[in-house]
Amino acid sequence: MTDDSAPVYTAADVGADSILLVDDTVILRDRLAMAMRQRGFLVQTAGSYDEAVEVFHHSPTDLAVLDLRMPGRSGLDLLRKLLQLSPNTRIIMLSGFGSIPASIDAVRAGAVNFLSKPADADDILAAITRGDDPTVPTGEVSFPAPSLARNEWEHIHRVLSDCGGNISEAARRLGIHRRSLQRKLRKRAPEDPASPEVIENDPTAQ
């Protein structure tokens, strides 16, 4: 959906006036900010954990959209911090790579929903309206068993996220050479035949 299309959802539809958008990719963040302003929101933006906390501390918002992977501390860390500051803020987590464990982590930590990139303004607002029925269940979860390659790929990216994107530290924790890790990070997510959806985006493209 392009920015000049008629919006499906507006601020009034989701019962909110303000929104915080946190993504280290400036072009994507600014485009989404423009779309949200067109839908009637007062928009705040940030590109990192520290910047987002400072902005939110001075001006808490009704909604927040957080990128899972950013330089420094992760979107999950930010999610927990924002909910400490404002428990009633409704938060959507975005990620450029698909991950069932990350989805579950985000919802269990308090996100109302989780979306894979790319997600436009109406995708995000639709996910917020589904907040009472999140696409990722919070209780006992039954998913088809992923392949060994998929498990390895997801584990590597979770460790890298925990290390704030530091490849050297992630390689140390994983017990592999830095160059070996770099080669693995250049690969796309392995296709899982049991999964109905295949993420098309390169997981390292941010």
TrEMBL record:
Return the annotated region ranges for Disordered: 182-206
Tell me the superkingdom of the source: Bacteria
Give every Response regulatory domain span: 18-132
Query: Which Pfam families has this protein been placed in?
Result: HTH_8 (PF02954), Response_reg (PF00072)
The keyword Phosphoprotein belongs to this UniProt entry's keyword annotation = yes
**Residue numbers bearing the 4-aspartylphosphate modification:** 67
Recorded hits in InterPro entries, A to Z, give: Bact_response_regulator, CheY-like_superfamily, Homeodomain-like_sf, HTH_Fis, Sig_transdc_resp-reg_receiver
**Sorted alphabetically, which keywords does the UniProt record give?**
Phosphoprotein
Its name, as the record gives it, is Response regulator
In its UniProt entry, the species of origin is given as Roseiconus lacunae
